[in-house]
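Journal club side-thread
Mid-discussion, someone asked how the predicted structure for our own chain would compare to the paper's figures. Pasting it here so we can look after the session.
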Amino acid sequence: MALTGIELSAGIVVGANKPVDAKYGPYASTAAALADIGTTLRYKGLTVGIETGGQVTEYWFRDGVTNSDLVEKITPLEASNITGLSDFIIASAPGLSITTTVHTATGATDTYSVGGLASSDPAHVLVQLNGVTQTPVTDYLIDFPNGLIIFDGIPASGTQIALTALGLRTVQPPIDPALYRYASDTSSDGLTNYYGRIANTDYTGTASASSPVWTIHRTTFDLAGRVVSTGSATSVAWANRTTATYTATP
């Protein structure tokens, strides 16, 4: 569809130091903007400025033109703006449980063990067969008391079964959030993930601390997204995570 409107051969130079559209404001509050801009002047996408404390925050009529449709305009965080994953460190959450179990299907059973189960809810377990994510309830159920997963059919012999149990659990004694910090990183080819833990008492202020006090878990994938190997190493420097000697994780 061809655009219609007034065609200009050059940009507009506005003599006044204020927005071209008077409806932008800025206003002292959203209430002031709504009172000043009648419904006949509104359209989806219309942006207004709200000035508080000398700073302007933009709001827009995102989904409609009613008063409730005027919401703050939030710019999504782009992945390209996230850098330095190896320096991303957070305090641990009490009882956080993330456990991965890998099997190779025998072709003779639909039941396999799962480590780290926190409940009988199948949605709390991420399941992949040869890298393909399965659907909870439809493709599998969880036998929580016995620590098992039950598939709706028998996986073919040789199929890689990757089971990651997620959730919060009660631990005794409770884990103090101040005890540990965590760091994560991914190899340059995107095929290996590293996840490390360090005691706050040994933490020196950066993820690349040289003190040999890290516990590091490593997971390597193939190009199809299947888990090739998992391993862990203890008492190693985070800076040596790529060259550390890892013990295979069953």
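Post-session note: Residues 85-91+172-248 form one domain.
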